[in-house]
Design brief:
The protein has 166 residues and is mostly helical. It is 61% helix and 0% strand. It has 8 helices and no strands.
């Protein structure tokens, strides 16, 4: 049977952080699941929450965990892939980065992202010429589901050419 100590939890946390970038909340969940698994194996109930909190706090002080930097990195990656600000905010909240979402929003980010998304999905001006008119409503719906506003979606779907600054 495994012995759980602050050192073993710290080793598990560092090993996890080597492989994945994680928020404080994510790392806490991973470590708590690991401790619960050990409790099930031992068939006993030991509360490892204080140890997990201590280890996470220590790693945060040492700089292994930085939620603000992770939020900026994740948001810029999602923005480059064509995600809307609404979708980015949602994904950051799932990762436990809800408080940092205000700091990562750039003005005009949706205008650039919608063109990237449209190009990837072949919507609007990127669709074959014969298909554009008959699939207009489907293209608008796709952009709306992706979290873009109707006015931006309509602008992209009804465009005749791609803007030069993209």
């Amino acid at each position: 049977m495994r012995k759980i100590s602050a050192k073993s939890i710290e080793n598990a946390a560092v090993f996890y952080l080597r492989r994945y970038s994680a928020s404080v909340k994510q790392l806490q969940l991973v470590l708590k699941r690991k401790c619960q698994r050990v409790n099930r194996e031992r068939k006993e109930e030991v509360d490892f929450a204080p140890l997990v909190e201590e280890v996470v706090g220590k790693l945060e002080k040492l700089g292994y965990l930085n939620d603000a930097a992770l939020a900026v990195s994740k948001a810029s990656s999602l923005r480059r892939s064509g995600k809307s600000a609404r979708m980015i905010r949602s994904k950051l909240q799932v990762k436990g980065l809800g408080a940092q979402t205000a700091a990562v929003h750039e003005p005009k980010a949706d205008e650039t992202a919608i063109w990237v998304y449209a190009r990837k999905k072949r919507l609007g001006v990127f669709a074959p010429a014969g298909v554009r008119k008959e699939k207009r409503m489907k293209h608008l719906a796709s952009l709306a589901r992706a979290g873009f506003s109707f006015s931006l979606a309509k602008l992209v779907v009804d465009a005749t050419e791609v803007p030069e600054d993209l």
